[in-house]
Specification:
- Cytosolic CRABPs may regulate the access of retinoic acid to the nuclear retinoic acid receptors.
- The protein is 13% helix and 56% strand.
- It is mainly beta and 134 residues long.
- It has one domain: Calycin beta-barrel core domain (Lipocalin).
- It has a 10-stranded antiparallel beta sheet with strand order 4-3-2-1-10-9-8-7-6-5.
- Helix 1 runs antiparallel to helix 2.
- The radius of gyration is 14 Å and the shape is globular.
Length: 134
């Protein structure tokens, strides 16, 4: 159920994120910022089933709204114009982004009350862990 993601999540740990950003083609200066920033993720959902995912940090705030299984255009925080689609598989909220012949996937799931985001590009995997704020 997607509802379990609804709430405000604070980034607590980030592993291998610089390597992941490098793999998707993020430039050095943007990676420096990306490594310093600890964004909060805010998930909400309306009655029509539209999910909003907002990433809030001192550096940049981005928000995307989507419906499961419906492709949409996304301008990412690092300024990639991607085609994105979210699916819900085996308890995971899976986001696939495609651009310039490349594909990356982000698998978000709740385990032990924490939200983990696994960022996958080819053989590079980064894991970011968030804790729910009361």
């Amino acid at each position: 159920m997607v509802e379990q993601f609804v709430g405000n999540w604070k980034l607590t740990t980030s592993e291998n994120f610089d390597e992941y950003m490098k793999a998707i083609g993020v430039g050095f200066a943007t990676r420096q910022m990306g490594n310093m920033v600890k964004p909060n993720l805010l998930f909400s959902m309306d009655d029509a089933g539209i999910i909003s995912m907002k990433s809030v940090s001192t550096f940049k705030t981005t928000e995307i709204k989507f419906k499961l299984n419906e492709e949409f255009e996304e301008m990412t925080a690092d300024d990639r114009k991607t085609k994105s689609i979210f699916t819900f598989e085996n308890g995971k909220l899976v986001q696939k982004q495609t651009w310039d012949g490349k594909t990356t996937s982000l698998e978000r799931e709740i385990q032990d009350g924490k939200l983990t985001a696994k960022c996958i590009m080819d053989d590079v995997v980064a894991v970011r862990t968030y804790e729910k704020e009361a």
